[in-house]
């Protein structure tokens, strides 16, 4: 009889162990006493340091000889299959169970009182915020985020106990359907991943299907400000299964209505109806107040399972401090550095709604700074399907730079939209903007390196430069920061 591979001292081998999610799951299992090892390519990632610190052994090749009958289970990244990976083929020969990372995450989630955080955008930062709030409230939870989190010492996991599990869950290809949630936090539902969800209806249906995994006594915590999330919540309500619906946001009714929001001294300052306290955050944007409100709902929900029914004054003060100190995740309004009065940032935002809220948030935080943006759109299918939305989401930027589209190997696009198409359409929209304090410039450089020299001459003291998108333009910001940091002469102050 096959022993439970997730029991202490069982042996699990991870193929693609350097991947953010796979490494995070390996860390959680390792901390539970499971013998973990794995393999990946020789290229160095930030996860190498984590694996070495934990002393989890891994091979930097996919040699089939590493798979032996002493292994109880193989967990692999979705990027690998038995047809192309010799280790998975060897596991098949030895009759060793092999499952995808998302399925393993689902099995792991069944061991706990689990919460899945989902949404087209906002899920990564919201999950990270949930982590720091659970830590501040002293709740025995494990957290898994789909990105490195500055507040987790640069890791994707936080482990404070084994009662609750809070994980970022992904809608792409319905990966979240493997998860076993008692609660779901739903941040947003919009048309996206057009290669898999060709219509809004198809992606909405996927979120409805996921929310229907909730048990009859489960909770759906959703953003009332997001039309898609509200639409999904209404469908779940009509199922009449007794799911508790908890809305949060500026338009929400009840305890988790965001009752005020303003910017003071480069801080977002906001209030939530249920708390006689004011909360502050150092990261820009009203959408971050919404993400924090979701975390507050979850903390208030979980505390009801503990000795107290409500968060006490000490916990509230600790949560206030945690939110103000929150530094976010990698590539989410991440500050690369500041040199000579210039702030260099990077953000993963690649959907028009996320881009618009991110840029407007930065502009409200720094109203007197010129905002210069380098954007590389991700996938031809998304760019084509949302071209009109993309063209009008960059209006907060003073200087807008476009590049070629970052293609995806998984799409088969035969249309005519390209990076220059997006540039031309956006430029036409931006030329119609009236009463702009600064002329709205729109530029195009096919390759990111082509923009480096012109930007060295354009960027001046007081500017903010941000690389934006899920493409590979982020090294441009690092290169510019290093250039200004090493250049001993001054920069133009205009």
How big a fraction of the residues is strand? 15-25%
Structural class determined from secondary elements: alpha/beta
Computed over alpha carbons, the radius of gyration is: 23 Å
* Cα separation of the termini: 74 Å
Number of strands: 21
Which strands sit side by side, in order, in the main sheet? 8-7-9-6-10-11-12
Share in helix: 25-40%
Q: Which assembly state applies to the chains in this document?
A: single chain
> Which residues sit in consecutive blocks of at least 5 with pLDDT less than 50?
none
Main sheet makeup: 7 strands, mixed
Shape: globular
The number of helical segments is 15
Q: Mean pLDDT across all residues, rounded?
A: 90
Provide a brief overview of the structure.
The chain is an alpha/beta fold. It has helices at residues 20-31, 46-54, 86-93, 101-109, 123-137, 200-211, 227-238, 286-303, 313-325, 352-365, 380-385, 387-391, 419-430, 452-458, 474-486, and strands at residues 11-15, 35-39, 58-59, 73-76, 98-100, 113-118, 141-149, 155-159, 164-168, 183-186, 219-223, 244-248, 258-263, 268-272, 278-281, 334-339, 342-347, 371-375, 399-402, 441-444, 464-468. The longest helix is centred in the middle third of the chain and has 18 residues, at 286-303.
